[in-house]
Amino acid sequence: MHLRADNKAGPTIETYLDALRLAAQFLTARGVELEEARREDIEAFIADQLARWKPATAANRYRSLRVFYGWLEAEAEIPTTAPVGERAERSRAAAGRR
């Protein structure tokens, strides 16, 4: 519903949902829920995608996950240290400078 409200095209929504489905399957096999995934879990998923698909496909799936985790963060469904996304990366970079 959120993606439709953002006026995303049908194929874009399908791409996002496909990435979420694949990530959820990969993470479930590791004993991790999608909403509870840590950065290293997402990195392992992307590495798996790079081994199976072209880099552009893996990058597209990563961007789809960024949208999902950004939405979860905005809705306060997960902490602001989401496993992917600019905020998470800036947060970790700032913590490393202290």
Give the oligomer, counting copies of the same chain as homo and different chains as hetero: single chain
Query: What is the strand tally?
Result: 0
What low-confidence regions span 5 or more consecutive residues with pLDDT below 50?
86-98
Give the SSE string.
HHHHH
Helix content: over 70%
Mean pLDDT: 80
**Shape, principal axes of CA atoms:** globular
What structural class do you assign from the helix and strand content? mainly alpha
CA(first)-CA(last) distance? 40 Å
Q: How would you characterize the largest beta sheet?
A: none
Give the radius of gyration. 14 Å
Q: Please state roughly what percent of the residues sit in beta strands, choosing from under 5%, 5-15%, 15-25%, 25-35%, 35-45% or over 45%.
A: under 5%
State the helix count.
5
Features:
mainly alpha; 0% strand; disordered C terminus
Task: Provide structural commentary.
The protein is mostly helical and 98 residues long. It is 71% helix and 0% strand. It has 5 helices and no strands. The chain has helices at 2-5, 10-29, 39-52, 55-74, 86-97. Helix 3 (39-52) runs antiparallel to helix 4.
Task: Set down the secondary structure blueprint.
Blueprint lengths: L1 H4 L4 H20 L9 H14 L2 H20 L11 H12 L1
Helix pairs in contact: 2-4, 3-4
Compact summary:
With 98 residues, this protein is mainly alpha-helical.
